[in-house]
Amino acid sequence: MIITEIKKGKKYLSAVYIDGELAVRLDTRVIIENGIRPGLEIDDEKLREYIEMSNIRRAKEKALWLISTRDHSKKELIDKISKTADKESAQLAADRMEELGLINDEKFARRYLDELLNIKHLSKRGAKYKLIQKGIDKDLIDEILDDTEFDPKENIRAVIEKKYLKNLADEKVKRRCIAALQRMGYGYSDINSVIKEYIEDEYYNEF
Questions:
Q1: Looking at the structure, do residues 21 and 87 belong to the same domain, yes or no?
Q2: Of 50, 23, 55, 34, nearest to 6 (Cα)?
Q3: What are residue 22's DSSP bridge partners?
Q4: Distance between CA atoms of 13 and 6, rounded to whole angstroms?
Q5: pLDDT tens, 12-44?
Q6: Do residues 18 and 91 both lie within one domain?
Q7: Distance (Å, rounded) from C-alpha 168 to C-alpha 78?
Q8: Cα separation of 102 and 81, whole Å?
Q9: 130, 193: one domain
């Protein structure tokens, strides 16, 4: 097989033509670094090698771009890279980011847990579900949750005061509030106990 033409495209991709037909698109820098040029004879094994090099190069660059925008768990990073690269390249790129210390599931989990509990006011159960979705190891999640001080009633109060307090005495609003808090992972007993505090407290009538 003979490389007959190379056309540079956008985003560091170049179209490589073999025997007059478009064969593959490779990372332009891989082409330059390996001396790939028209007239070069190439076999299937060498072509696969260049494709693999190109995929890994682009997967790593995608990984670097993603983690420059915000923190990612390893699984989350792999899943996102896999949208534009093969799974193996995505895994290798994520492994490299982990080796460099650019991603760390424990640090990610602790930061994300703080956001879930203290900003979004989820319950521990709700936060655990979110962390599992991010691909964090369940044993690691349990370890971090065990280390975390948490008052569910305090978070329930925060949600009520932010969204429902003014009309909490209205039965429809109260039911909507209860349903929302249950979706956040809170138990009915804690929810009901906190709601009673507001409805029965004399100061509630000031709202």
A1: yes
A2: 23
A3: 17
A4: 10
A5: 888 989 988 898 889 898 989 889 889 988 888
A6: yes
A7: 44
A8: 15
A9: no
Same domain, 92 and 28: yes
Question: CA dihedral defined by 49, 55, 56, 58, rounded to 10 degrees?
Answer: 140
At 207 the pLDDT is 43
Across the range 187-197, mean pLDDT stands at 92
Each residue's pLDDT tens digit, 85-94: 899 999 999 9
- Based on the structure, what is the number of domains in the chain? 3
| 9 and 94, same domain (yes or no) | yes
Q: What is the CATH number of the domain that holds 63?
A: 1.10.10.10
Q: What is the CA radius of gyration of the chain?
A: 27
Q: Give residue-wise pLDDT tens across range 132-161.
A: 999 999 999 999 999 999 999 999 999 999
**How far apart (Å, rounded) are the C-alpha atoms in residues 92 and 74?**
11
Residue pair 39/5 in contact (Cβ under 8 Å)? The answer is no
Residues 25 and 88 in one domain: yes
On whether both 13 and 86 belong to a single domain, the answer is: yes
Contact 94, 74 (CB under 8 A): yes
* Token code pair at residue 150: 């948490």
pTM reported for the whole predicted model: 0.77
**Dist. CA 7–CA 159, nearest whole Å:** 57
Kindly state whether residues 87 and 112 are assigned to the same domain: no
What domain range includes position 202? 152-206
